[in-house]
Amino acid sequence: MAADKAALEEKISPILAQQLNWETLKPQYVKVYAGTYTEEELDAILAFYKSPAGQAWFAKSSAVGEQARKITQQAIQDAQSQVRKVADQAAAPQQ
Asked: How far apart are the first and last CA of the chain?
């Protein structure tokens, strides 16, 4: 089983390395950003990322995103529970 997994990883890794390589993706990203932002906006964005606040945002955004994901996931679970109760009540035979 472990040998099969290793053999599969050996076959998959080069594919992912080729497809997810920055040189492959860069032209597509450049096109998206150039089509979305003006040059002035990009300059301002770059200035922000180079600023202390931008560096802090970049360093902490992953952790903030993870916390936000957990909050959202919990809210969805809470809503599902409430929706399930309403649906069960609606499906119950009328007395």
From this structure: 56
Measuring CA to CA, which residue among 69, 70, 73, 45 is closest to residue 57? 45
Does the pTM surpass 0.70? The reply is no
Q: What residues contact 49, with CB distance under 8 A and at least 6 apart?
A: 55, 57, 58
> Which ranges in the chain belong to alpha helices (H)?
2-19, 22-36, 39-50, 52-91
- pLDDT tens for 16-52 read 888 889 999 999 999 999 999 999 999 999 999 999 9
Rounded to whole angstroms, how far apart are CA atoms 26 and 37?
A: 16
